[in-house]
Amino acid sequence: MKRFVAPLLAMAILTVPIPAAAAGAGNFTLINKTGANIGALSIRRVGTGNWTPLGGTPSNGGRIAVAYANPDCAFDIKADLAGGNSATFTGVNLCDVTTVTLNRGPSGDLWVDYD
C-alpha cells in the first residue's frame, strides 16, 4: 500500500499550482547616458497624465539609486535635460530590473537598456 501512496502524494504535490511572485516595480539604479546632465526626473504609469518626481539629478554618465515601489510594471520616465530640453522614455518596464540606463543617440533617438 505504501508503494502506491508515495507516488500519488508526490504527483499531487507537483500538480498544485504555485502562486507567481508578485509583479511590480521596485528599487533600481538609474544611469544617465543621455549626453546631458539631468536637472529633474519624473515618472508616470503608462496611459496616465500625472507625473511624479523621482528625485535625483544624475550628471551625464552618472548614476543614482531610485527608491520606488508600485504594483505596475510599465512607466514613462521624463528627464529634464540641461539646456532646457526634455526626453521622455515611454513604456519603461520596471519589473524585475536592477539597473535602467537612459540613452539618447546623436540624432535624438531615445532608448532604455536594462540589467
Layout of helices and strands:
Elements: H1 2-15, E1 28-33, E2 38-45, E3 52-53, E4 63-66, E5 74-81, E6 86-93, E7 99-104, E8 110-114
Parallel strand pairs: 1-7
Antiparallel strand pairs: 1-4, 2-3, 2-5, 5-6, 7-8
Provide a short characterization of the protein structure:
The protein contains one helix and eight strands. The chain is mainly beta and 115 residues long.
Mean pLDDT: 86
Q: Low-confidence parts lasting 5 or more residues at pLDDT below 50? A: 12-21
N→C terminal distance: 52 Å
CATH topology: Immunoglobulin-like
Number of domains: 1
Report the biggest beta sheet as strand number plus sense, adding barrel if it closes: 4 strands, mixed
CATH-derived architecture = Sandwich
